[in-house]
Amino acid sequence: MRHALDPETFPRPLRPLARKVRDHVRLDEADALLALTTPHVLDLGRLADAVRREMHGDVAFYNLNRHINPTNVCVYTYNCKFCSFAALKGEPHAWEMTLEEVWQNAADQGGNDVTEFHIVGGVHPELGLDWYERMLAGLRQRFPAAHLKAFTAIEIGWFARKEKLAIREVLERLVAAGLGSLPGGGAEIFHPEVRAVICDGKLDADEWLEVHRVAHSMGLKSNCTMLYGHVERPEHRVDHLMKLRALQDETGGFNAFIPLAYHPENNYLGLKYHTTGLDDLRHIAASRLVLDNIPHLKAYWVMITPKLAQLALSFGADDLDGTVVRETIYHMAGAETVQAMPVAELERVIRAAGFTPVERDTLYNPVRRAA
Ligand code: V47
Fold it and tell me: Which of 25, 82, 119, 291 could form a disulfide with 20 if both were Cys (CB 3.0 to 4.6 A apart)?
């Protein structure tokens, strides 16, 4: 029983939810729908904060990471209407790094001072799995202390299809080359009604989940995401969260969930609105409450701004992601946040919110550095 929670102090519609949270009773689909739609966002945040504090006390995590996007050339450029990053080969905004450029990019971005390279890209029609193996092996050789968190399930699924290999074989080869874990991208919204509109023809829900299932069965950890704030309805989001929770019950392999707020600029979806601050906080809080088996919840500051991410720490989030440097996917979609956050600034933001900053590695082990 969470004694500090008195359900009678909550607005009437939230009281049944508050009782369940107080008594550690798992939320069902109707509860999830209520959480994802309630106008009582501050009260929902109070519930999520109780859960978050029980899990992590006053700790708020961050990491020293860098993003590398080797290419934005993508076979799904016309399929993924929400994506502002992808390009067709030969388009003026397309880029393709050579292996040397990837390694140089990593070196320019801090090399072994960072604990994680987050490497994702377009699904390139020509580059073979061997190119990516050489990329990872070259990074591992040059930066042995850095964890390589690379390739969304979409990229892994493509490698399997292109090379006519099983998902497990692809992952085994990439792990042998240096892969440490998988990021959570590409999940979008699992429901086929939504996928048909925003990313028709890309991996479906079962395929996305299968990539992570296989990864987890091999001992790899991964993250998961949900892209909200476009054409989906709340019921679709409930379905999405339930599918992630079910896989986590099965494997326990997800480290963190990252709700991703849709950014409308420079893409083919034709929507004009950004999510509001309350939408973002509601999603953070609702996902903390529903995903009771996923240990960490990231408020990705690049996406929702450092100011809102700071507030999100009191709405269920326990992680602000990292220093990043040169974020591309969101900035091509209209994000107006800076492209990097120095450690001192991340720590200042966390402390000012009343939490204790803890630098973590990709697997959430605290990082101890000489002063
Ligand atoms: O898969 C693409 C999303 C994702 C847009 O695992 C968009 O630690 C909003 O997955 N508006 C990539 N979102 C980012 C991602 C991620 C980020 C930070 C940390 C981790 C992690 C993963 O970005 C894509 C897609 O869902 N995305 N375009 C857009 N216009």
Answer: 25
